[in-house]
Amino acid sequence: MNVNLQKQSSINFIVLGMLIFFYGCHAGDPPITAKIDVQPPKGFREVGGSNYVMYSVGESYRIKNEKDSWWIPGMLEPVIGYYHRKDDDLIRDQLRTLYANGQRKIAVLVWIAAFSGDADDPDMDKMVDGLLGHCIVMENGKLKEQYIKNTRDLITLIRKTGYFNELNFRFAFQGCAGPEKWKEWNENQYQYDWRAIVELRGAVEQALAGSDMKVRYDLGAELGGMEGEYMQKFTSRLWKDYTRTYGRADSYGFSVALYPGRVARMLNAFEDVGVYPDVYAIDVYDNMEQWLPEAVKEFNNAGIHRPRIIVQETYYNDPETLAVLQKVGKEYSIDYLYLMQWPLARGHNVPHFSVDFASEYDAYLNKTN
Predict the structure, then answer these.
(1) What's the pLDDT score for residue 128?
(2) Contacts of 44 by beta carbon, 8 Å cutoff, 6+ apart
(3) DSSP readout, 229-289?
(4) For residues 283 and 109, what is the distance between their CA atoms, to the nearest angstrom?
(5) DSSP codes of every residue in 306-338
(6) 56, 157, 271, 338: which has the fewest C-beta neighbours closer than 10 Å?
(7) How is domain 31-364 classified at the architecture level of CATH?
(8) Could you read off the pLDDT of 41-60 as tens digits, one per residue?
(9) Global pTM?
(10) Upper half-sphere CA count for residue 198 (Cβ side, 13 Å)
(11) 3-state SS, residue 110
C-alpha cells in the first residue's frame, strides 16, 4: 500500500472512531449490528415492535410474585412515571436494542389513576410522588406537570433516535378514573380524563413536531367493548369529542381485549357517533382460534369486511402466536397491519411481565429475509 494512502486511511479511521465515540450514541444513526433489511412475516403488511412500558420490573414481583410487591416504590419503573429518574443513555441503550433486533414501531402506554386527596383514601399510603404502582395519578383532577414534561421528553428522545417509523401512544384509565366501576355517571371525572388526553396528546405532538414519525392514539387501552353500565356512554362520548376536536385519522379509538361480543359493542359506540376509525386494534393472547373468527363475524355483521387490524398486544417473541394469527388471518381474510408484542412470555407463571422490556422480536420477522 502507498505510504501516503496508508497514513490517510489511518487518519480517516481515527476520525471515524472519534465521531462514533462522540456522536454515535446520540445522532440517530442505526447501530452497525442492526437488522437493517427486516421484513414483516407472511400475512402482515409492516414490521411492528413492542409496547415499551417499563424500564425495569423488580424480581420480587416479576419472578417471585411476592405479596404486595407490585406497590413497593421502585418495584415498577413505568417509562413515563420514571423518565426523570433515569439516565438518558440507559433509555437510548434499550431503544437501540429494540431497533437492532428488528423492531420498527414502538408503543408507549400511560396508566392514569385518580386520587381525591382525601387522607382516608386507602391508596394514599401506596402513592409516592404522584405515582401509584404502575400509574401516574391525577390529584383533584390534575396531572402533575412533571409527568406531562416526562411525556414530552421521552417522545422527543424516541424521535431523535430515528429508530422507529411509528408510535402508538396509549391511555389507560384505572380504577375510578375509568367508567368500569362507576355507580353513576361522573361528569367531573370524564372532564378530568378528557383534559389528561388533551394535555398528554399535546406533549406528544409537540415532541413530534416537524418529524415524519407517524402516531396513532389509543384513547382507552382495552376499553373497547367492555361491559359496564356507563362504558358505552363513556367511549361514545370520548370518541365524539376526540373526532370533533382532532379528526379520526390518528386514532383507532379503543383497543379491544379480544372476547366474544366486545368487537360488536365497540362498533356500536362508533355507530353512536357516526364515525368509524380506519383501522382497529386488538389485544390477544389465548383462545385465538376461537375468538378471532368470532371477532371477524362481528365486524362482518356491521358491514366491515376484511377489517384492517393492528395486533396491539400479544405474547413476547412467540412463534406459536404468529402461527395461529397467520392461520386464522388467512382463513378469515384479516388484513393485519403489524404486530406489537407485550413483555410477557407464554407460560410465565407471574402475570403481566416476564422481562423488563421486550428486547427480542425475531419470532415476528420474516425468516426468509
Answers:
(1) 81
(2) 336, 337, 338, 339
(3) TTHHHHHHHHHHHHHHHH-STTEEE--EE--TTHHHHHHHHHHHHT---SSEEEE--S-HH
(4) 13
(5) S-EEEEEE--TT-HHHHHHHHHHHHHHT-EEEE
(6) 271
(7) Alpha-Beta Barrel (3.20)
(8) 999 999 999 999 999 999 99
(9) 0.90
(10) 13
(11) strand
Asked if 35 contacts 365 with a C-beta cutoff of 8 angstroms, the reply is yes
Give residue-wise pLDDT tens across range 57-84: 999 999 999 999 999 999 999 999 999 9
Give the separation between CA 180 and CA 220, rounded to whole angstroms. Answer: 12
Q: What percent of the chain is predicted at pLDDT more than 90?
A: 83
Alpha-carbon span 160 to 158, nearest angstrom? 6
288, exposed or middle or buried, with CB in 10 Å at 0-12, 13-18, 19+?
A: buried
Count Cβ atoms within 10 A of the Cβ of residue 83 and give its class: 0-12 exposed, 13-18 middle, 19 or more buried: buried
If you search the block for the grid coordinates 411481565, which residue do you land on? 353
Residue with cell 369486511: 305
Rounded Cα distance, 81 and 151, in Å? 9
Instruction: List phi, psi (to 5°) of 313.
Output: -145, 140
The answer to whether 340 touches 105, Cβ cutoff 8 Å, is yes
Report residue 129's pLDDT band, with 50, 70 and 90 as the boundaries. confident
Q: How far apart are CA 172 and CA 177, in angstroms?
A: 9
* Average pLDDT along the chain: 90
Task: Tell me how far apart the alpha carbons of residues 340 and 281 are, in angstroms, rounded to a whole number.
Answer: 10
CA atoms within 13 A on the CB side of 357: 28
DSSP 149: H
Q: Where are the domains of the chain?
A: 31-364
Using the structure block, give the residue that is written with the C-alpha cell 429494540: 98
Q: Are 195 and 138 in contact (CB under 8 A)?
A: no
Q: Give the per-residue pLDDT at 130.
A: 84
